[in-house]
Amino acid sequence: MFMPDQRLHSELDLLLATAQVDQRMPSVSACVFRDGEILWERVLGVADVPTSRPATADDVYRIGSITKTFTAVLVMQLVDAERLELDAPLRTYLPEAPVGPTIRMALSHLTGLQREPPGEIWESMEPPSREELIAGLEDAELVLRPAEQWHYVDPYTDTVRDEPDPECRGSSRVSSSIAASAPEPRYS
Q1: 65 is catalytic
Q2: In terms of C-beta distances under 8 Å and separation of at least 24 residues, what long-range contacts does 174-182 make, across chains too?
Q3: I need a surface site. Which of 24, 28, 37, 86 has the fewest CB within 10 A?
Q4: pLDDT by residue (tens digit) across 63-116?
Q5: Annotated catalytic residue: which of 52, 65, 108, 129?
Q6: What are the percentages of helix, strand and coil residues in the chain, rounded to 5?
Q7: Residue 159 · residue 118 · CB < 8 Å
Q8: What contacts 187, CB < 8 A, 6 or more positions away?
Q9: How far is residue 60's CA from residue 33's CA, in Å, rounded to a whole number?
Q10: Rg, C-alpha atoms of the chain
């Protein structure tokens, strides 16, 4: 079992506190874990600025598009474990996906689909739920031919949302539920 020394804990504390101040974040939460064991965890600041409610390890933060990197790593781990095929059509694992694009294309922003999920997300500023996002994939407009040109797109990587990590008591991370529940490929 790896046990970081107190000096490392102090360095991580300083890095987190410095980042909070430098980035002007009301709160920040960080957790380091290995093999399901929490090695270090800190929470600084307030979760709700108007009420000054202190942040806790149970608060969940929206972390936006950086989750695409984590999602790609998760997907590649599933590919390495032979639970996903990189060149399989998205429909193999997500029946609502349009015909054509593969997992590789989705990770590379080569699906040819519209950038944002169908709907009025920018007008309402209300993102769709995971279920709404998946259901809306059938209505996604193909703006380019798949694999023809790079075109930033959210819907596929956003179907794996950032959720609380039970091993990190609420610290935000990309859900590992896809890894735990990746279905066996369906070929038609």
Answers
A1: yes
A2: 174/67, 174/70, 174/71, 174/74, 176/74, 178/74, 178/75, 178/78, 179/74, 179/77, 179/78, 179/83, 182/78, 182/83, 182/84, 182/93
A3: 24
A4: 667 777 878 888 898 899 998 899 999 888 888 877 888 888 888 888 877 666
A5: 65
A6: 35, 15, 45
A7: no
A8: 92
A9: 17
A10: 19
